[in-house]
Amino acid sequence: MRKIMKIVVIAISILLVGNFLYQRTSVYFLDMPDLPFSLHLNKESIVLEKGDTFRLSVFSINKRVHYSSKDFKVAYVNLNGKIFAKKPGVTFITAKVGKKTLRCKVRVIAINRKTLTLEVGEKYQFHIEGDGIISIVAWKSSDSSIAYVNDYGYVTAKRKGTVVITAKTHGKKLTCKLKVE
Predict the structure, then answer these.
(1) Which of 130, 171, 127 is nearest to 149 (CA)?
(2) Which residues lie across from 105 on neighbouring strands?
(3) Where is the BIG2 domain (predicted)?
């Protein structure tokens, strides 16, 4: 009897510890495959640059879909599911099919300046607007001898000329035309 109790306690301990560790692995966050005839969106989360569009669609069988945006100032959606990114921020697009409601998280991002003029020796910091999460941004200057940009978006004007500062994040490429006088 004692041996059986010991085995039960060990088994319960393994299950508890395993469940705790399982939630912190990538296996826990795997998406289940969508069944062919189940209602689902083509995307559940998207990142758009200000001015971009994206076509959201619901996989269903011959059913009417009603789209709406939680914050139409950030992103607007028309009757056909086309999303228009208006200004940096986060919103949710809702697709109602009968009694079922599906949601897509939309993040609209933009670089804080599209054009900029600096004097030789001046510094400026670029950043990405609308990105509510901490993300990795790869900053690059088209000519580092005119203006150098570091990993944190700080740019230093070195000599006269024109360069393009590029920020890559979330699969998007954001640019600013920088003139050094």
Answers:
(1) 127
(2) 45, 92
(3) 35-107, 109-179
